[in-house]
Specification:
Strand order of the largest sheet: 5-6-2-1-8-9
Number of helices: 3
Strand content: 35-45%
Number of domains: 1
Shape: globular
Distance between the termini: 71 Å
Radius of gyration: 20 Å
Number of strands: 10
Largest sheet: 6 strands, mixed
Helix content: 25-40%
Length: 166
C-alpha cells in the first residue's frame, strides 16, 4: 500500500511539476511615470515579476542569473536602460538610476530624470521583456498636473507618445 502511494506521488510529481512550472501564461509589467513639478523631475517606478526579468537576462547573457549573481543590479540596470527610454522633441531624456528592490517575487526598478515641462508629447519606448515573452503586456500609467492616462506596450507596440487632454 505504501509502495503504491509512493509511486503515485512520484508519478504526480514527475508529470505535474512541469505543468505547474509552465502554468505562468500571463506576462505583465507595470510602470508608473509621474512628473513631480515641485522637484522638477520625472519619477519612474517599474514593477515586473522578478523571475521573468532574471530569465530574460539569463537568456541574453547565457549565464545563470539570480539575486545571488555578483552583478545582479548592474545587469538589471543595463537591461532596463536598453529597453525603456523617454524622449522629448527628438532629445533623449537622461534617466538616472536610483535602484531596485525585490519583494515577494516582484522586482521594483526606480529611475528619475530632471524635467521642467509637462508630459504631453513625450515619446516612450518600452519593450521590456517583449522579445523574451511574446504575450508580454506592459502598461505605463502617467500623471502630471495637466494630464493622466495609460499607454500599453506589446510586441507589436513598443513605442507610444503621451497625448494631451482630449
Amino acid at each position: 500500500m505504501i509502495k503504491r502511494l509512493l509511486k503515485l506521488v512520484v508519478v504526480i510529481f514527475v508529470v505535474g511539476a512541469p505543468a505547474i512550472a509552465g502554468a505562468h501564461t500571463y506576462f505583465v509589467g507595470l510602470t508608473s511615470l509621474v512628473n513631480n513639478h515641485e522637484k522638477q523631475q520625472i519619477e519612474v517606478i517599474h514593477q515586473f515579476t522578478a523571475h521573468d526579468v532574471e530569465n530574460a537576462i539569463a537568456e541574453i547573457t547565457q549565464e545563470s542569473f539570480s539575486p545571488e549573481h555578483r552583478a545582479y543590479e548592474e545587469y538589471i540596470q543595463l537591461y532596463f536602460e536598453r529597453h525603456f527610454s523617454l524622449s522629448d522633441s527628438n532629445q533623449d531624456i537622461k534617466l538616472t538610476w536610483v535602484g531596485i528592490e525585490v519583494k515577494r517575487g516582484k522586482l521594483f526598478v526606480y529611475q528619475e530624470a530632471k524635467f521642467k515641462k509637462y508630459l504631453t508629447g513625450i515619446l516612450v519606448k518600452n519593450d521590456i521583456l517583449v522579445d523574451t515573452y511574446s504575450k508580454q503586456v506592459n502598461t505605463l500609467n502617467f500623471q502630471d498636473t495637466q494630464i493622466k492616462g495609460s499607454l500599453t506596450f506589446t510586441d507589436n507596440q513598443k513605442i507610444a507618445s503621451i497625448k494631451g487632454i482630449k
